[in-house]
Here is the input.
Amino acid sequence: DAKTTQPNSMESNEEEPVHLPCNHSTISGTDYIHWYRQLPSQGPEYVIHGLTSNVNNRMASLAIAEDRKSSTLILHRATLRDAAVYYCIPANRDDKIIFGKGTRLHILP
Amino acid sequence: NAGVMQNPRHLVRRRGQEARLRCSPMKGHSHVYWYRQLPEEGLKFMVYLQKENIIDESGMPKERFSAEFPKEGPSILRIQQVVRGDSAAYFCASSPKTGYNSPLHFGNGTRLTVT
Here is the structure.
């Protein structure tokens, strides 16, 4: 399993962009990079995933470094509802989705 | 489309009783995953099932815990002779194919309290 390193916590102001970093230097060439989040008292929620190219969806953007050893989840305009724990998870065909400690994101009004 | 349905939302059991947690995956999803989250801790993988088959149960405690996903009906996580340490939130997720390239859709969990 690829190891990941994420900040324990981050703060951002409401209505500003947020960049959540993740280091995954031991990732293999076939690992997809997944991001999930968990809001308080709820189940985890899928955010986005990608392999090599940057990815966009209605929730966020995923920027993957060219060497794939790191990635950044971008929330373009944070709201109070984005306060959650964000998990960066590399996974390949033989892996299940394994959650680490994640980054607790605080949004300041 | 209905999401992943878990019931009950809250379950209270006395020590030694059995707990049965149910998970109905999203329509068309044949892959089910169970996770456990102890208070103030992270999510731990327990078991991965496809219809009628256990694919990976490496996260399941060796005793008292079992899971099934029958051809018809919901997936069931069964905990026999519950102990206080089993108190946790149990989350189920489903996907249409293996989760490495497919989003997992999670339910809102069953919160088990053992008294």
